[in-house]
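One record is set out below.
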Amino acid sequence: MPRGHYSLHDPHDHTPLGEEHFHCATGPSGWRYVSQIVSPSGDHTGSVDLTLDELGRPLRLELHASAWQVRGAALEGVTWVRTDPTGEHATEGNVPAHAFTGASPAFLIATARLLRPALGAGAVRTRLVAFTPPVLAPRTLDQSWALLKSTPHATDNAPLIADEYQVNDLETGEQHTVHITGDVVLSAPGIELESLDSPPSTFP
């Protein structure tokens, strides 16, 4: 069960946004990721709890940020309930999309797992619903993911395979690169892996 933490920063001006302390694990039914997010001053600012099935579809999502809460799952596309900080109002949403995304590294692992683009086979397109802090307002977006290369790195145990993906925002044309090994993000815009207590899990 990998445990560690990521540093989070603004991908444009590199302003520190805090840290995400996580643990995750694969299992017979899929994959689960749980994390707590803290500000640069150490205050708790949110949490992520994401469970995928064996195909990478979101079985359960629970997000918290600034007293906002989202619960969601893959159901007739993706369906969610978003609750305001007072707890008095809840709004439901449903979009014909494939999965969720957001600021957490968990969503990069989840999207790569869902799409599984083959090396040299070109980009795979997907539609996602994004929830980003601080208010977790939903936004539907289209991306494409292409696997550019897979590089083995020797370790004391089995070699680790680092996958490099090119991610395109199909609305804006913006491109960026994501590096993943197993179920851990090595680096991505605004995300750096700072510590890891045990090796990444490998998906079957």
About this structure: The helical segments are 105-115. The two ends are 15 Å apart (CA to CA).
